[in-house]
Specification:
There is one protein chain. By secondary structure, the chain is mainly α. The chain has one domain. Helix content is 58%, strand content 6%. The chain is built from five helices and two strands.
């Protein structure tokens, strides 16, 4: 009896594709396509602005899984150290959006 054993893949494999990274253009496209951003108070303009702020030129042209997770942790830290409730809410929304889009 032949039993086919499926390879176990990470849960966010489909977001970063088989390459393990995304180019800035691919990441921008995924941000644009995310329809659940409206539910989180992030319209298309805010998502594009967030992309430029969170994944600036220092991250380079390609964004891999570890850089994405670092960005989420950085936003969570900024939310923790925010001085006002409004700033904290904005950083938390951004972190939740990134987690949801990448299935982290």
């Amino acid at each position: 009896m032949d039993k086919k054993i499926d390879k176990i893949q990470p849960p966010n494999q489909d977001f970063f594709s088989k390459k393990g990274y995304l180019s800035r253009g691919e990441l921008s496209g995924k941000f644009r396509e995310a329809s659940f951003g409206y539910d989180m108070g992030l319209d298309r303009i805010k998502r594009e602005k967030m992309l430029k702020e969170v994944f600036g030129k220092e991250t380079g042209y390609y964004v891999d899984r570890s850089e994405f997770q670092k960005a989420v942790k950085k936003l969570q830290h900024q939310a923790f150290t925010a001085k006002t409730g409004k700033e904290k809410l904005e950083f938390e929304r951004r972190a939740r959006f990134l987690k949801k889009i990448a299935n982290l």
